[in-house]
Amino acid sequence: MTAGFVPPPYPYDRLDKFKPFADALPGGAVDLSIGTPCDAPPDAVIAALSSSKAERGYPPSIGTGPLRAAAQAWMLRRFGVDIPVSQIGACVGTKEFVATTAQLLHLRTPDRDTVLYPAVAYPTYEMSATLAGCRPVPVAINAAGGLDLDSIDPADVGRALMLWINSPSNPTGVLDDLPAAAAWGRANGVPVFSDECYAEFTWVGEPRTILEAGTEGVVAVHSLSKRSNLAGLRVGFYAGDAELVTYLQEVRKHVGMLVPGPVQAAATVALADDGHVVVQRDRYRRRLEMLSKGLSRWSGFDVEMPDGGFYLWFDAQDGWAFAEQLAKHAGALVSPGDFYGEGGSNNVRVAVVQPSDRIQLVVQRLGVN
User: Fold this and answer.
1) Domain count, the chain
2) What is the pLDDT of residue 1?
3) What is the CATH number of the domain that holds 357?
4) Is 0.90 surpassed by the pTM of this model?
5) What DSSP character marks residue 141?
6) Are residues 26 and 50 in the same domain?
């Protein structure tokens, strides 16, 4: 019998061998590996979740009218773009959208079989191609840390089903050239999907969206997991090109991809409130500064502040060796850079997603106060 698909080890499960080192220290492990928010969402969001009475029927797969209107209003406030509600759809957290969209687009365009994505990136872009039976083709990173679109082989361009771009980047924090990606996609007839889940945490300049360059051939993807500390609710949205969005809205109905009704009600409230995001931005900024200084002093490596996102990404010469030493000395679990592609093997990603007192504990253990 021919062997079929065998799921690879889930990246973060590979860190289990370091947990005993971290747990052995007084105060236990401080998990800075997975980007799981720890801070509380607004009380009004929780109230909406528990009082919507929307659990009693099937919610619309494309998103309720109020949710899509709230997404529209948020994009207008945040980016100055006015996207018709008809060109906005809900998704069950953006990870499922990233993981499934290649398969859905391949059904639509079966003569295209290649998914392009950053060579150092969130691993689900590559996995989405594998799950769709497509070719995952990483795009080289340029000197500025963004996509080197000129490096893409013309043969791969001709077979490209889609291009993923991620800005601010997970894991690097780099702000990529979104208008250039949109222009490249239009020139080559390749849909561009822009993962903008960390846009609210842009530290250099104002938050940007690819939709500022128009909607033709592009789709932006946004999440409430990071913005509003709602990772457990699994809710996000996609918006952009009318034809692409309509196709995805319709086919996703058949799959039953439904954001639960109470969750849609809570997300509507969260998107309408910008105040809690300002508070969260300040928290992440303070934690990034605290840990970047501490790690730089302890390690001797240059641990710089990112341009966006809530991750520190730096060259540690050997990502796995550094992660092991940090677990032993500071009780912190961090992600070796090869989780995000071969090009990151020397690097480490540190997520500042623990409360500030836990971040401070790590710095204290490093002895660099």
Assistant:
1) 2
2) 59
3) 3.90.1150.10
4) yes
5) B
6) no
Q: State both tokens at 359.
A: 């971040």
What's the confidence (pLDDT) of residue 10? 82
Q: How many CB atoms lie within 10 A of CB 34?
A: 13
**Residues forming a β-bridge with 166:** 195
Which domain, by its residues, includes 218?
43-271
Asked if residues 220 and 214 have their Cβ atoms less than 8 Å apart, the reply is no
Q: Which DSSP category does 369 fall into?
A: -
In our burial notation (b when 16+ CB lie closer than 10 A, e otherwise), range 119-132 reads bbbbebbbbbbbeb
Cis ω before 138 (30° cut-off from 0)? no
Which SS3 state, helix, strand or coil, does residue 180 take?
helix
Q: Could you give the angle at the alpha carbon of 184 between the alpha carbons of 179 and 187, nearest 5°?
A: 125
DSSP string, 207-256: ---GGGG-STTEEEEEEHHHHSS-GGG--EEEEE-HHHHHHHHHHHHHHT
Asked whether the beta carbons of 120 and 341 are under 8 A apart, the reply is: yes
Give Cα 202 to chain centroid, integer Å. Answer: 13
Low-confidence residues of the chain: pLDDT under 70: 1-2, 369
Residue with tokens 């709602």: 230
Last residue of a domain, one of 233, 252, 271: 271
Question: Which two tokens mark 326?
Answer: 């940090």
Q: Does 5 reside within a domain?
A: no
Residue 273 Ramachandran class (φ > 0 left, ψ -120 to 50 alpha, else beta): beta
pLDDT the model gives residue 365:
96
What is the full DSSP assignment across 285-337? HHHHHHHHHHHHHHH-S--PPPSBSSEEEEE-SSHHHHHHHHHHHH-EE-EEG
Tokens of 321: 């060796």
What was the pLDDT predicted at 118? 98
CA 317 distance to own-chain centroid: 25
**DSSP 3-state percent helix, strand, coil across the chain (nearest 5):** 50, 15, 35
Residue 170 per-residue DSSP state: T
Tell how strand 311-315 and strand 88-91 pair up. Answer: unpaired
In sequence order, which residues have a C-beta less than 8 Å from that of residue 325 and are 6 or more positions away?
none
